[in-house]
Design brief:
The chain is of the alpha+beta class. It has helices at about 5-15, 20-45, 110-120, 125-130, 130-135, 140-160, 215-230, 245-255, 265-275, 280-290, 295-310, 315-325, 325-330, and strands spanning about 60-70, 75-85, 90-95, 170-175, 180-185, 185-190, 190-200, 205-210, 235-240, 260, 335, 340-345.
């Protein structure tokens, strides 16, 4: 195979004059983009440059124009070929590259990096500075960032309105999350309602995420109505943190739905009432009950825990541990390990809280 001496000389010259491996890599990136786009155009035209083939040719080239594309290697300027294609109606139209669409200035990886920096809390004015090592002087305006973020908001809304009929959701996990966000010039905690679904095969999928004013019955009612409108069906079980507004909203929509108190939240309640020296041991005893193999094992573990903490100097710890995990609660336990889900008899309702 013949060597491309001209291109090799260009790369070697870049290394010697600009100095460094990085410049050579960027030069090779330009050559690769040129080759990829040229191959795409050849397939569209049905013929290589200067090839006379009337049988397969569907158009003709008419020059090039410079394009600058910012990739993970920095801004790269290359020659974008131009051509006109003959349509089925006998007219001609301008050829458009599918690999480098019109008006595209950045690769998808750079856009993802920009969104990641923005979502981490950096404002639009500081993104260019934060991504300076990646952009390497490439163009990036505040308006470009705003357009990208606006497109993300549209994509998020489309995702949140997607149909759920094909997912076959069997179990719901609903909880409120309180991250810090910037409102004006202040950073405050706001409630974000998160709904997680579990399919019949054990796959977990995020169903809904929304920012609300407060974690109330009305807010959760809107979430549930949205899920119903998206064809979620009737779930078998809902796992919640004990929020009374959430439980009320679930009962309004599905009166016979089995509701389980989240075992993680219940363990946190127990540890909050226990002395610091007993919390680790308490967690071990509690998990032994939660992951028991049978009702008899639950009763045995609960009796053992009651005996262990009978001499505790904390009244609330004694009272709560003695309640332990009842057989009814165990019957509703949802154990999600990796991609598997095991749900025992869910015919009766579990206790709502600790």
């Amino acid at each position: 195979m013949a060597k491309d001496t001209k291109n090799e000389q260009r790369v070697e010259g870049a290394v010697k004059t600009a100095g460094g491996l990085e410049m050579a890599i960027r030069q090779r990136a330009r050559l690769m983009i040129d080759a990829i786009v040229e191959e795409e155009l050849e397939q569209a035209l049905g013929a290589a440059p200067s090839v006379r083939s009337q049988e397969t040719r569907t158009g003709y080239r008419h020059g090039t124009r410079e394009r600058t594309l910012t990739t993970s290697l920095g801004p790269t300027t290359f020659a974008m070929p131009r051509a006109r294609l003959t349509t089925a109606a006998g007219t001609t139209e301008e050829w458009r590259s599918a690999l480098v669409p019109r008006y595209q200035r950045r690769s998808a990886q750079v856009d993802e990096a920009m969104l990641g920096v923005y979502l981490s809390g950096t404002n639009t004015r500081r993104i260019k500075g934060a991504l300076a090592p990646l952009l390497r002087g490439g163009p990036l305006s505040k308006d470009a960032v705003s357009r990208l973020v606006g497109r993300l908001a549209d994509d998020f809304e489309t995702w949140r309105q997607r149909d759920l009929a094909a997912d076959g959701i069997q179990y719901l996990m609903l909880d409120g999350w309180y991250p810090k966000v910037r409102i004006g010039k202040r950073r405050v905690r706001v409630p974000v309602l998160v709904t997680l679904g579990v399919r019949a095969d054990g796959d977990r999928v995020i169903l809904d995420v929304r920012l609300v004013g407060d974690e109330s019955t009305a807010a959760w009612r809107d979430v549930i109505h949205s899920l119903v409108a998206r064809q979620i069906g009737i779930p078998t079980l809902a796992v919640i943190d004990g929020n009374p507004g959430l439980a009320a909203a679930l009962r309004e929509q599905w009166p016979t739905l089995a509701i389980q108190r989240c075992t993680t939240h219940k363990l946190r309640n127990l540890q909050a009432k226990a002395p610091a020296r007993l919390r680790e041991e308490l967690a071990e005893e509690y998990r032994r009950m939660i992951y028991a193999d049978s009702r008899a094992a639950v009763d045995q573990a609960r009796c053992a825990a009651s005996t262990t903490f009978a001499g505790s100097d904390n009244y609330f710890c004694r009272r709560r541990v003695s309640k332990g995990v009842s057989p009814t609660t165990w019957r509703h336990s949802v154990i999600v390990v990796g991609r598997s889900v095991a749900v025992s008899d869910v015919s009766a309702e579990a206790p709502a809280g600790a």
